[in-house]
Every structure is written in structure tokens, then in C-alpha cells.
């Protein structure tokens, strides 16, 4: 039976992608993992595998139980005592590696700082002592609302050092989002800055904190970094300048001995509709998971210069800018600004300047670069790069190929990493020295991760489309939704009892590779066929004129739902003439007539969340000419107007 015949009435798999990329011989020869035994070993003894990974960290006291699983609640390394900041800093300094660079920081205006592990340990210790002076004790929650400056990482590590869970709120969020999160988390203090730089202009943060704190009774203190020098209001007795308090503190602060299952942080997922969920992560298992995946997925070596071009305010930044890389003693780049400031070659300038060897970013950024064209990358020396990563959404095969060709110069393996805020760590990904990659596939589960694809009855789908599930606990998994166990159980564990349901559709091909197909809530039902958004969008992006696409289902008398597509053209293409009809034909040809969009609308932009995810809910509203629902998580509200006033839809006339 072919994959397309295997219908189940789950999600149909239509897209065929046959290009294969084996790891380059030289890369494989020196890779950390280049033989497949690791998968079998981990599968044969999952707890043993993770215990071995955990043993690479420094524990104050050993655990007595590797895993205590009372579904859906896991305890990893129970009885163990550990401190995350100690593992990220002290142990490297103690091993004589204090002069290694932890961060090459580059501010958006072009100011720079080089921070060694020894510097970072001292800064973190001073900040930890300052927090204590402000009355923060072990167990108190601290909210962090900052630009991408080194003090953001320092603040997180200082919290971890004294056992105060942090909740980082992305600096682009509004004062209302900030106060909601502060109140849900019962935070006692806020660490912020006067402002940050965004596309050349200072944008205020302290002003939003002042506004948010009108409605947050639990906040006692506000610690403020001076970054932009802009004017700020000041509340005596509550507000304290970082430069008045932190630098004068003693440069050592003994790390708290935390329980493995003590809370390390809360991170709120924006969610597209409902109230944000406070995703709860704990200490020993989380650090084990992120250190292990960072080391093996990115093949980290001592001489690497690693750059995750994401914001620390997202889980990518928590796990793969701060905790994973520092636990591994890596050297990283930290960049404050956007890819297009002052011009579209800013990233490539940074790669050249710091001789970046590993770049990790999101498909939305890759497609934005693709839209501008390769000439910006071509004016820079990118020969230092040896590995590329992608995260955040399904990467369309054409974007994957563009990334591999123009950025990786056909020399670098590409690791497409599937995971979530909730999973804490990478779950499905190639191992770059071992896995033969297929553009658009996240390939196979990481060693020690037991994933599967189920049909609606919870039976495994051998090949074909269905619901992605994780069948066994993993160390960095969320431990709950803060303050709402009922919602935790309902959201993740009720659909297939005993199995974690991430909410994504996926298909498995004949080689056992996983192809993520988007959120199951976005699946469209056209004439009884359940179609994935991802495949149709990838088919559109495979046309040479298209830079980015989003599709949604809208009600249709004849077919139940019809596919409505929004298309962003490449910068040098003009959308006149018959391009709409041509694109519809193209999709029909690439994946079949059933998937042909009924309408194609050319648009200058798409509504996205701040982390770059397309808000299909708003696109459905636009496609049906309805008033918009909740737009609070929308990154740029002008986008919707721009779409509405852009060219008319070309609709089905056949
Ligand atoms: C959702 C999680 C993981 C850190 C950033 C996003 C989608 C993420 C991939 C990928 C296909 C992906 C999924 C997932 N997603 N990575 N490589 N391929 N889809 O974290 O905001 O919690 O979002 O992003 O739909 O469930 P997040």
C-alpha cells in the first residue's frame, strides 16, 4: 500500500519529497555521533540512557530514583541535589576554563561586549547577592522583562543560583500581557531595563512595567538596567537602578542546593486563543535534556562559535541560548536586534565577524531572507559555518534547500528540530553526523524519545498521516501548567490517555521519517479529505515566484471547506496577469487536484505572533470578511489592514 492509499481518515499525506542529503564525509568522520548504536542503546534502557547523560552534570548529592512516573506526573532524578548556575558557570571556571568566551554580545547599534565564563560567574554572583538584598528568597518568583542584553542571561542565572524561579516575558509583549503573567505567577520582583533598541530606535520597557504594576499587588521591587538612556518615571522605594546596586555586591555567592524537581522557571505560551499557560519546568531533568540535545544535535566542539538567532524570551532562548550552551561550556553569539537592521545583511555580517560555525534560526527568518534574495549573504564570507539548524515551524522543502544552498553553501548539514515550549528540549531531529536528511522532514526522534503516530483510535499508523504522540516521559518535559493541573491533564493527556499529545499532525514515511504537518486544529476538511496546511503551503513555496504562503479552510457549500491561500511573492516578482491561476495549477500538479486552493490572495505580509507563527485564526477571519477576533498576540497590527487593502482574491473559475 502506498502512503496516499493509507487513508485512515486521519490526515492525508500528499507531498512527495525525494531529495536526500547524506552527512558530508568529513563532517561525519569527526562528529560526536556517527554510528547508530546510540538509538538502540537508548531504546533498550531509556532510564539508563538518561542517567548516563545526567551523570555528565555536577550533582551536590546523587539521585536515588532515575524516574518516578505517576502518569501524567514525572519526577526525574529524585533525591538529587543540583544547581543550574553552578553547572553553567562554576564548574567550567573550576576546570580552568574561566577565560573561555561565553558570549560575544552584539548590540543592535553596533556596540559589543565579550564576556568570559569567569566574568559571567562574577556578574551572576553579584546579581544574585543584589536579589537577596532586595528580599528575594529561594522559592520567590521573579519576572524578567528585558531586551537581548547580557544582563538578561545574568538575571536568569542569578535567579537559578538562589533558587528563585524566573518567568521571562518577551520584551515585545504589552503591559497587559506582562501584568497577566506577573499575577498568574505571583511574582515578587521585576527585572527590566529602561528600554531596548529595535530597528535603530529606543523602545521603552520600563514604561510598560510602570503601567503593568498598576494591577500587580505582589510586586515589591523593580531592578532596572540602563540600556538606552531614555527618560523613565521612578517610584522611590520600589525602583532600583542595576548600576547602583549590582556592581558593588560581592563577586561570590554560594549556589543553593536545589532539589532536582524544584521549579527552575515558568514560561507562558501565548496560545492563539485562550489564557496563556504557565509551562512549568524543573531543574535536574531539564538541564540534563537541554545539555544532552545541545551537545549531540549541534555536534558541539570546543572551537565552535554557536549562534541561536532567537530571543531569550522564547523557549528556544532558554534552552539553546542560555542553559544548554552554558552547561556545555560553549562559546555563543548573542545579538540584540532584528535581521534587517541596518540592512538585510546584518546576520551575515555577524557570521563573518565572529566566524560563527553553527547557526540555529526559524523558518520565518529563512523565508524572509529568501524573499530578499541571496545577494545579501553572497557579499559576506560564510565559510566558517559548518552546521545549520531550524526550529519553530515546519520548514518548507524549498526554504530548506535555499538555506542549505545559499547559507550552508552546500557544505553544512541542516538539522530541522521539532519540539515545543512544553517539551523543553529537542525531540525529533537529525543527528548531523549520522542522519541522511530529507528537506522538510525533522527525520527521527532523538535517542531516548519514544514517539509515534496514532490514528484517531490511538492505534499506530505505520506509514501515513495522523497525530504525533510521545509515549514515554523524557527528562525536560513540562511538569504541569502552573496552578492548573486539570488543564494540564485535559490539554496534553486526555486525547490518548497515558500518552503525551503535543497537538501536531505528522506523517511517517516508508523510511520511518517524521514529517510535521502543522497543528491538528488547522487541518482542513475538503470533500471529506483531511488536508494539512503545511503540505499545501510547501507546494506553493515550491513555485519560483513565492516567498511565503499560508492556507486556511473556509466554509464552502459544495466541499464542506475550501482552501483559501495567502501568498507573499518574492521581492522582484509582480503578481499581475495569471499568476493566481498558475499557482493554483501548480499546487494541483505538485500534490493533486484536491489540494488546489479555491482562492489565492497576494499579500505583502502575514499576521504572525511575536515568535513568528502564522495566526491562521485571523486569516480565517480575513478570508471570510469577518471582524477580527483577539489580536493581542499579533506582532504587528498594521499587517491585517495591509492584507485587507491589498489586491483582490483570484478565485476559482473552473
Ligand atoms: C510548536 C511549538 C520549539 C521552540 C520554538 C517554538 C511547531 C516547532 C517545529 C519543526 C514543525 C515545528 C509545532 C510545535 N514547531 N518546531 N521543526 N517542525 N513544526 O515553541 O512556541 O512552543 O511552539 O511549533 O507546531 O507544536 P512553541
Summed up:
This protein is α/β, with parallel strands linked by helices and 654 residues long.
Task: Describe the protein.
It is a single chain. By secondary structure, this protein is α/β, with parallel strands linked by helices. Among the domains are: 144 residues, Rossmann fold; 129 residues, 2-Layer Sandwich (GMP Synthetase, Chain A, domain 3). The protein contains 20 helices and 31 strands. Strands 12-11-8-6-7-14-15-23 form an eight-stranded mixed beta sheet, with helices on both faces. The relative contact order is 0.12. The N terminus and C terminus are likely disordered. Bound molecules: 5'-O-[(S)-butoxy(hydroxy)phosphoryl]adenosine. 5'-O-[(S)-butoxy(hydroxy)phosphoryl]adenosine binds next to helix 11, strand 20 and strand 25.
Amino acid at each position: 500500500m502506498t502512503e496516499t492509499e493509507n487513508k485512515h481518515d486521519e490526515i492525508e499525506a500528499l507531498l512527495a519529497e525525494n531529495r536526500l542529503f547524506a552527512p558530508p564525509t568529513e563532517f561525519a568522520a569527526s562528529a560526536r555521533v556517527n554510528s547508530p548504536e546510540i538509538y538502540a542503546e537508548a531504546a533498550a534502557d531509556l532510564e539508563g540512557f538518561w542517567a548516563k547523560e545526567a551523570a555528565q552534570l555536577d550533582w551536590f548529592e546523587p539521585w536515588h530514583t532515575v524516574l518516578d512516573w505517576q502518569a501524567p506526573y514525572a519526577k526525574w532524578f529524585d533525591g538529587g541535589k543540583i544547581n543550574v548556575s553552578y553547572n553553567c558557570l562554576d564548574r567550567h571556571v573550576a576546570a580552568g576554563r574561566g577565560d573561555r568566551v561565553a558570549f560575544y554580545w552584539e548590540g543592535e547599534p553596533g556596540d559589543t561586549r565579550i564576556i568570559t565564563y569567569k566574568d559571567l560567574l562574577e556578574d551572576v554572583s553579584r546579581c544574585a547577592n543584589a536579589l537577596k538584598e532586595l528580599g528575594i528568597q529561594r522559592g520567590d518568583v521573579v519576572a524578567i522583562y528585558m531586551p537581548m542584553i547580557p544582563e538578561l542571561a545574568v538575571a536568569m542565572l542569578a535567579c537559578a543560583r538562589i533558587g528563585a524561579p524566573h518567568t521571562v516575558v518577551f520584551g515585545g509583549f504589552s503591559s497587559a500581557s506582562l501584568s497577566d503573567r506577573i499575577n498568574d505567577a505571583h511574582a515578587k520582583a521585576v527585572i527590566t531595563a529602561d528600554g531596548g533598541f529595535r530597528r535603530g530606535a529606543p523602545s521603552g520597557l520600563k514604561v510598560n512595567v510602570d503601567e503593568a504594576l498598576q494591577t500587580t499587588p505582589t510586586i515589591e521591587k523593580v531592578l532596572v538596567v540602563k540600556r538606552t538612556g531614555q527618560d523613565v518615571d521612578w517610584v522611590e522605594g520600589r525602583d532600583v537602578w542595576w548600576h547602583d546596586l549590582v556592581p558593588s555586591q560581592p563577586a561570590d555567592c554560594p549556589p543553593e542546593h536545589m532539589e532536582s524537581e524544584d521549579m527552575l522557571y515558568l514560561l507562558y505560551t501565548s496560545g492563539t486563543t485562550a489564557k496563556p499557560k504557565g509551562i512549568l519546568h524543573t531543574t535536574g531533568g531539564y538541564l540534563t535534556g537541554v545539555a544532552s540535545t545541545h551537545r549531540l544535535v549541534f555536534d558541539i566542539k570546543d572551537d565552535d562559535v554557536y549562534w541561536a538567532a532567537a530571543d531569550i524570551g522564547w523557549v528556544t532562548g532558554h534552552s539553546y541560548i542560555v542553559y544548554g550552551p552554558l552547561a556545555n561550556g560553549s562559546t555563543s553569539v548573542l545579538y540584540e536586534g532584528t535581521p534587517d537592521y541596518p540592512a538585510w545583511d546584518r546576520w551575515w555580517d555577524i557570521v563573518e565577524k565572529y566566524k560563527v560555525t553553527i547557526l540555529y534560526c526559524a523558518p520565518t527568518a529563512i523565508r524572509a531572507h529568501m524573499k530578499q534574495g541571496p545577494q545579501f549573504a553572497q557579499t559576506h564570507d560564510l565559510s566558517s559555518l559548518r552546521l545549520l539548524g531550524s526550529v519553530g515551524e515546519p520548514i518548507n522543502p524549498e526554504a530548506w534547500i535555499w538555506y542549505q544552498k545559499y547559507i550552508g553553501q552546500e557544505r553544512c548539514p541542516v538539522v530541522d528540530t521539532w519540539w515545543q515550549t512544553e517539551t523543553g528540549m529537542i525531540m525529533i531531529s537529525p543527528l548531523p553526523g549520522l542522519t541522511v536528511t530529507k528537506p522538510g522532514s525533522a527525520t527521527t526522534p532523538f535517542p531516548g524519545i519514544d514517539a509515534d503516530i496514532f490514528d484517531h483510535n490511538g492505534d499506530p499508523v505505520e506509514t501515513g498521516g495522523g497525530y504525533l504522540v510521545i509515549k514515554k516521559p523524557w527528562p525536560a518535559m513540562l511538569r504541569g501548567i502552573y496552578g492548573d493541573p486539570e488543564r494540564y491533564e485535559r490539554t496534553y493527556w486526555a486525547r490518548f490517555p497515558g500518552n503525551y499529545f503535543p497537538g501536531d499532525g505528522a506523517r511517517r514515511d516508508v523510511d520511518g521519517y517524521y514529517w510535521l504537518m502543522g497543528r491538528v486544529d488547522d487541518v482542513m476538511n475538503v470533500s471529506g479529505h483531511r488536508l494539512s496546511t503545511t503540505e499545501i503551503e510547501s507546494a506553493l513555496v515550491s513555485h519560483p515566484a513565492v516567498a511565503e504562503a499560508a492556507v486556511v479552510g473556509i466554509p464552502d457549500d459544495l466541499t464542506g471547506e475550501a482552501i483559501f491561500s495567502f501568498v507573499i511573492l518574492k521581492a522582484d516578482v509582480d503578481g499581475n496577469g495569471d499568476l493566481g491561476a498558475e499557482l493554483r495549477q501548480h499546487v494541483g500538479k505538485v500534490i493533486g487536484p484536491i489540494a488546489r486552493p479555491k482562492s489565492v490572495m497576494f499579500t505583502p505580509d502575514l499576521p504572525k505572533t511575536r515568535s513568528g507563527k502564522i495566526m491562521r485564526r485571523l486569516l480565517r477571519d480575513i478570508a471570510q470578511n469577518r471582524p477580527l477576533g483577539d489580536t493581542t498576540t499579533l506582532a504587528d497590527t498594521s499587517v491585517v489592514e495591509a492584507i485587507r487593502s491589498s489586491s483582490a482574491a483570484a478565485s476559482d473559475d473552473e
